[in-house]
Design goal:
It is a single chain. The protein is 48% helix and 15% strand. It has 191 residues and is of the alpha/beta class. The protein folds into three domains: 39 residues; 84 residues, no CATH class; 60 residues, no CATH class. Strands 3-2-1-4-5 form a five-stranded mixed beta sheet. Helix 4 runs antiparallel to helix 5 and helix 5 runs antiparallel to helix 6.
């Protein structure tokens, strides 16, 4: 905050740090209502992407030390949708309870990694993420050179998907059946 105060002082607005903190706290209460609405809208989507990652928070509630791990969960709609949404949730841990709370009332398809918490989320179906698969094969190349062959196939698949990014979902679906399906079969044989 002190950097922002310095910038604003140069522009002629003088305020104290405590005033700025009060404004942020008050504004966050108003914004919280909007984030709850966004979360509720995202849970109505037929398809969501989900993940979580470690974050370090300096002053944590729950009497956690500043060096303790916290989790930032994210759920989002696909980037190909005209109306996209992303929701970030600060959760104290990576437990099934946290995942169930975050995805409560979601009845669609969830694309996520293979972490066991997602199996406890009550939704229509879960699908895997090829980026996570890619990472595992990439890590495997350090121990076994044979992992490079499936990586090359995944690279081809990602390259094609990038080329098709601006196409309609129907066009992408058609191309996936024609060009990605054979690559996926080839990948399964090598993988």
């Amino acid at each position: 905050m002190y950097r922002q105060l310095k910038d604003w002082r140069r522009l002629g607005w003088v305020s104290s740090e405590s005033t700025l903190f009060r404004l942020v706290i008050h504004g966050s209460k108003i914004v919280q209502l909007l984030t709850e609405l966004l979360h509720a809208e995202l849970l109505k989507a037929p398809y969501l992407q989900g993940d979580e990652t470690v974050v370090q928070v300096l002053r944590e509630p729950h009497n956690k030390k500043a060096t303790a791990e916290s989790r930032m969960w994210v759920l989002r709609t696909p980037q190909t949708l005209q109306r996209q949404g992303i929701y970030y949730a600060d959760k104290p841990d990576r437990t099934a309870r946290s995942g169930q709370e975050l995805y409560a009332e979601f009845v669609g398809v969830l694309r996520c990694d293979g972490y066991s918490v997602y199996a406890s989320v009550d939704c229509r179906d879960r699908v895997g993420c090829l980026a996570h698969v890619y990472r595992k094969f990439f890590e495997a190349t350090k121990r076994d050179h044979r992992a490079k062959r499936p990586l090359k196939i995944l690279d081809q698949m990602f390259h094609l998907e990038k080329q098709w990014q601006t196409l309609s979902s129907n066009e992408r679906k058609k191309l996936r059946k024609q060009r990605l399906a054979p690559l996926l079969k080839k990948f399964v044989v090598f993988g």
